[in-house]
Structure formats: structure tokens, C-alpha cells
Design brief:
- By secondary structure, this protein is an alpha/beta fold.
- It folds into two domains: about 55-95 and about 115-315, Mur-like, catalytic domain (UDP-N-acetylmuramoyl-L-alanine:D-glutamate ligase); about 325-465, Mur ligase, C-terminal domain (Protein-Tyrosine Phosphatase, Chain A, Alpha-Beta Complex), CATH 3.90.190.20.
- Helix content is about 35%, strand content about 20%.
- It contains 15 helices and 19 strands.
- A hairpin with a 2-residue loop joins strand 14 (about 325-330) and strand 15.
- The chain is globular, with a radius of gyration of 22 Å.
- The relative contact order is 0.10.
Length: about 475
Amino acid sequence: MTGHRPLSAGLFGALVAAKAAGHASRVLRAGGGTSLPGVVARRIAPDVLSRIHVGSRVRTVFITGSNGKTTTTRFVTALLRGEGLPVVTNAAGANLVQGFTTMVVEAADLYGHLDSGALVAEIDEGAVAGIVGQLPPDVLLVTDLFRDQLDRFGELYAVARMLESVAQELPAASTWLVNADDPLLASLAADRHGPRLTFGFELGRSTDEITRAADTIRCPRCRADLEYRFVYLSHLGDYCCPSCGFVRPLLDVAVTSLDTTTMDQTDMTVRTPNGEIALSIPQGGTHIAYDVAAAIAALVAVRQPIPNAERSLAAATPAFGRLERIRAGERDIILAFVKNPTSCNTTLRTLAIGGEPRHLLIAMSSSLVDGEDFAWLWDVDFEAMAPRVVRATIAGTRADELANRLKYAGVPVGAMQIESDARTALDAALGELPADVPLVILAGYTPTIELHQEMQRRGWVGRYWEA
């Protein structure tokens, strides 16, 4: 919650101009108006966020971390709406300062007040300090910490130090909510004054193993090798340090049973302080269970009962680009946004449940927003995928490097076709696609947007910011 200053001409002008810019952007189809209003508002009133009055009845949940932000935000939103609460959220994933500001100023009235419902937002790790410093939430949820865009963020420990600083600066009434299965994340802000909640898995079995893609496998306190009782996803698991005694914290919310044997469904049981909840989610993968546990923990943190959780989450469809199924005329497409070794490996393992990919389009960009460092591709387990691939179309600004990586993984050179332009690559891939086989698209951020816009132009999907 924030206090508020009296309405000034500057704030009023910023709100009016921002709302007008968003409306014009949508009417003129210049975009979804997901960032422009925030840019306009901040140009007129740079402190606009700190001057918005969020009422005491409004529940505010902000979600950050390396992976799972968008899906967790979607699940929190579904749970709250399932209990009848109106929710303001950045559903299109505009999670930088401009996008967050857009969401807030468009939801507020012309007096700068937001007085009912809930505010649920994903926030980019690089933007969280600035946003939370201006508009502190009831709950700051961190999903996990993985190596991601090292050319932008630097090494993983720099991100951890930044998040710890943010946690220490949170108001005492705000809840610090973290994935305790992540050793580095679990070690942060241990002495913080204020509520702290944890979530994770208690399965009594492993669902993954430590590989070269795992990031945090040493004790964050003494740097000794961690010992794992169970490994759940990359470096996430039940761990302890034999040297200094650091152990995984007790879990407030825990996944106690998990079935991910189908590509499009996850069955699970979640233990909460208020009892167990049995759930069936129409999305596949171990990562989905983590996102569900995080979302339920957020509702625990704001003391919101969720008697309708099973029904609410059963209707939660995948977010844009998250193994999104698209009907393309007479063909089927599975669109998967991937951005780092763990997200790509997790996606490939989920696809493997259904025997995919067989026909693959993989597109990556080396732009600033995508990350200019492609070294992470060598930590992706393309080797496990390669025997299934019949044909691979390769696109993007570094298509040659992608092709080289797939060659070393075991994809035959004769099965690969390079088309640098993503739209041309889509036609090439669909042109060779058998009628009964889906085209699996693995794409970075910019190619995902480009491909989705092309599919929208062809009438296969709606606008991505409405997905």
C-alpha cells in the first residue's frame, strides 16, 4: 500500500495523457498499449508510481524471478478471480517499468486512486528494485534464480544481491515469498524483519537430476558442494550442506504428489496451512507444479481463502508462447518461448512426453532484449531431442550458430534448412509438415513476437497482448 499526495495538475495531466495514449494505440492498432501509456505518464510525472494511492483493501502481489513469472502471475490472477475479486494485471507480460506503469495508471481513476480488487504483476528482475521502491507490495514473490541473459544481468550472484537488497528494504508488513527449493534464493534475507513464506516440493522422490545446466549446486554460505536428497528441477530440490549445516528451510506450501505423465496435464496435491488441495491443471510439466505452488502460497500470504481453487486452475490456459497450441489452417503448431538453459531443457522434457519435436522450427535473436550471448545453447540438452527430429528449420540473427549447435547434438545436416527471416522460415517449415504432425516452434523473445504477429495476420491467433 502507499500513502498519497494531494492531486496535482502534473499527476492529473499524466493520467489523462497516459489513458489517451493507450486508447489511441489500441484504436489505431499500433500495438496493445502495454508500454506507451507508461512512457507518457513518466515523461510528465516521473514519480507517478509513488503518487498513486492504492487503497487498504487492494491486495498487491508482485512476481519476479528468472523463470515462471508469466505463468505464476496468470495462476494468481485465476485464483483471485475465481473468488470473485476483480484483478488488474499485466497479462501481456509487459514487465519493465514502462509496462508496469501502464498497468497502474490505466487502472487508477483520474484522481490517482485504485481502491478495490487486486493488483497482480510480473516484474523483470532488472526493474524490480525501482518499482518496489516506489510502490511496495503486500507480497513480493520470487519464483527462482537461474542463469539468464548474463550480458544484461551479469553473473547470478549479482542478481541475488540485488534481490536481497530489495527484500531488506520492503516494509515490515510486506511478505517475502520465495521458492525454498532454490538454495541461493532460500539463503537471501534470512534476517529480514517481516513475514517470510516458502514453497517447494515434498515428493520423496527425484523428478530430475543434476546436469551441466544446473546453476546453484554449491552452498551459498560456505561454497562447499551441496548434497541432495532429491532433485526436482535443475538445481531445485531438497538439499543440505555437509560443511556448514545450511539446509532447505521448512515449507509453508508444498507439492506433495505430482503426475506429469501427459504433455497437456499436470495432476498434483498441494499442502497449505489450511489443508490439502487436489488439482488438475491443463498444462504439462514439473515447472507448472512450481508455478501453481507459488500462486497458492501468494494467496496464503494475503490471507485469501480459495475454496474454488480446483475449478479456477482447471480453467487456466497456457500463457502466450508457453507451449501454446495453435491451429494453423489444417495444421497444428506448438509455440514455446525459451530464453535460458533451464527453460529450454524443461520445455524439451515436457515435449518429449508426447514424442516431440519431430518437425522443429527454432528461431533465436541476438538483440539487446533477447540477450547477445548465445553460449547458453551449449548447456541445452539438444542431444536427447536429436533422435526424434525429422526436419529442423532454423531462423534468426544467429541461425548459423544454431545450426552448428544442432549438428553437434546429432541432428543430421541434411535434415536442417536455414532461413534467417522468421516469417520465411515459418512457411518453409509448414511446407514440409505432414498433416498429422505438429510443428514445434522453439523461439526467443523477439522471434516469438514476430511469429505470433505473422500468425495473427494470417488469422490463426488473436493479438498476443490479449492471449
